[in-house]
Amino acid sequence: MTVAYACGKVILFGEHAVVYGQPAVAVPITQVQAQATVEDAEPGEGITIIAEDLRRTYKLEEAPPDDPLRVTILNTFRRLRLSPKLDLTISITSTIPIARGLGSGAAVSTAIVRALAKHFDKYLASRAVSELVYETEKIYHGTPSGIDNTVIAFEKPIYFIKGSKAEIFWVGRPFLLAVADTGVQSPTKEVVEDVRRGWERERERYERLFEGIGKLAEKGRRAIERGEWEEIGRLMDENHSLLREMSVSSPELDGLVEAARQGGALGAKLSGAGRGGNMIALVTKETCGRVEMMLRMAGAKDVIVTEVR
Ligand code: PMV
């Protein structure tokens, strides 16, 4: 039996604008993770997929061609030059909430790719894992920028521009993030399509917003490298305002952002596609308890405090 894991992620700066070629910054979140287990099955059994959290067990050959797990498994077989006629049981569990901007889809795919490579004693570099997961991301997201698969496969803070090699960078001074869940599921694909419609209607305004966000991501990376917490917080606030102008926030997200700021956070913004999902707040050891309390009072369904290093 072989087990492999993958972490979650949050986008610190640049969501949506990254789809239009602007830079973005994302970091791994290790408190939550996806796990994949691969076991040899009886001869002739074929491939059985057990999605434990969804309480679903099914045969790979019976799954529709666009089933994300099927696509991940078959692409990995192809990459590793394995026969798709193997007899295996592949089980998946995850503590990453689904459709909340924490990269659950990419993490599940990453865990599967890693578990299969390990099971068959094959080496896959992080970049190869990321490329395989990107293929599955297209099913979830339509036109993904590639940021989720990259940060999760590399498990390091990344500065990402679509179509270029992601840059891993160093955190000058580790910092704490409170990640709060609105409890509202938000399918990334729909929000990304809405932004595209907005951009088609009002190109100039949207392109100004994208460029503004890109500049914040650039400054954000520098502030993280220098360990300038106040500056990181200020840039997060500014990024949230621009995302609001792009209509991807929601009353729930704005409520949590406001609550975090009142609790003493240095900055706060939505993270990921928006309209629901998670928001993030920059906190310190001193403010984290109070911010968490304020977030829960304002309706957060869950709050994770994580250190970015
Ligand atoms: O997967 P999420 O919800 O964190 O959002 C992805 C971020 C977007 O920029 C909105 C889309 C993309 O492909 O980068």
Short recap of the structure:
By secondary structure, the protein is of the alpha+beta class. The chain has helices at 68-79, 104-119, 126-141, 147-154, 188-201, 203-226, 229-245, 251-262, 288-297, and strands at 2-13, 24-40, 47-51, 56-59, 88-94, 158-160, 167-168, 175-181, 267-271, 278-283, 302-308. (3R)-3-hydroxy-3-methyl-5-(phosphonooxy)pentanoic acid (PMV) binds next to α4 and α5.
Explained architecture:
The strands form 2 sheets. Strands 1, 2, 3, 4, 5, 6 and 7 form a 7-stranded mixed sheet that branches. This protein has a 4-stranded antiparallel sheet with strand order 9-10-8-11. With 309 residues, it is an alpha+beta fold. It is 42% helix and 24% strand. The two termini are 32 Å apart. The chain folds into 2 domains: 2-167, 2-Layer Sandwich (Ribosomal Protein S5, domain 2); 171-308, GHMP kinase, C-terminal domain (Alpha-Beta Plaits, 2-Layer Sandwich). A hairpin with a 4-residue loop joins strand 3 (47-51) and strand 4 (56-59). The site of (3R)-3-hydroxy-3-methyl-5-(phosphonooxy)pentanoic acid (PMV) has 17 residues, from helix 4 and helix 5.
